[in-house]
Amino acid sequence: MIELLVNWKLLLAERKLSILILIRLRLERTSNLMFPFVQISSWHYKVCYSILEGKEGKLKLDFSAWRQELTEQKVKYPLNYKTFGEAIPPQYAIQVLDELTNGNAIISTGVGQHQMWAAQYYKYKKPRQWLTSGGLGAMGFGLPAAIGAAVGRPGEIVVDIDGDGSFIMNVQELATIKVENLPVKIMLLNNQHLGMVVQWEDRFYKANRAHTYLGNPANEEEIFPNMLKFAEACGVPAARVSHRDDLRAAIQKMLDTPGPYLLDVIVPHQEHVLPMIPSGGAFKDVITEGDGRRSY
């Protein structure tokens, strides 16, 4: 198996029988914490070409066994979340969107908790439905990516599942979807915080906040900034929903409205993405429960 080694400590901790082949242009720069079975000093692309030549240009990859393993693990350890009164769990919002689109929408995201929940709770039916910057962490990616999808795949349902922190970084693109009359739907999971950073603050820093609250400290009851006003300024229809019982109808209206639309979904900032592995940890250190409503 050939693997892109992003977190080698994680790999070695979990796969004790793996063979680690290190490819580096200058081997003298190799960390003394890495103990590869084989070290190769070369350009990476040359090594890849050599592998393909050894396979006569045909590298057949069979993922069926791995996919079967994933299916079994999903049944054994299903995702779950809690509900609290009339508050809208962000995971639930994505589940409802999935149901109403039958898993056929093209989904784009920004970066943060919403990005991970979109990966977990939307049941994609086919390739090329999922537009995200992944580990590059490009906040603000969601709306421009959705614009590209709407232009490239006319007639498809395109939804930008975004967070308020990411969305505000490219909010000016509301003007683009208006003037181009692109049917981009924006489902904004608005928790008034930089949710992913808040999760780490909750878990590992005793919930001490460091510029992760995005609202107005003088009036924390107010939804600030008012995303509906941004949409109004650009002539984009918009609505806000804050109660679970109203969510399904609000999403359906978003989908049924011709052209662009912004739905501001107010969600609790205490929600955590699970499972998660702490920094420097391995799979054995995985966290599977808890949220920002308790102390750590």
TrEMBL record:
GO terms for biological process: amino acid biosynthetic process. Residues 110-265 form the Thiamine pyrophosphate enzyme TPP-binding domain. The keyword DNA damage does not apply. It comes from the Eukaryota. InterPro entries: AHAS_TPP, THDP-binding, TPP-bd_CS, TPP_enz, TPP_enzyme_TPP-bd. It catalyses: 2 pyruvate + H(+) = (2S)-2-acetolactate + CO2. Pathway: Amino-acid biosynthesis. GO terms for molecular function: acetolactate synthase activity. Pfam families: TPP_enzyme_C. Its cofactor is thiamine diphosphate. Belongs to the TPP enzyme family. This is Thiamine pyrophosphate enzyme TPP-binding domain-containing protein. It comes from Solanum stoloniferum.
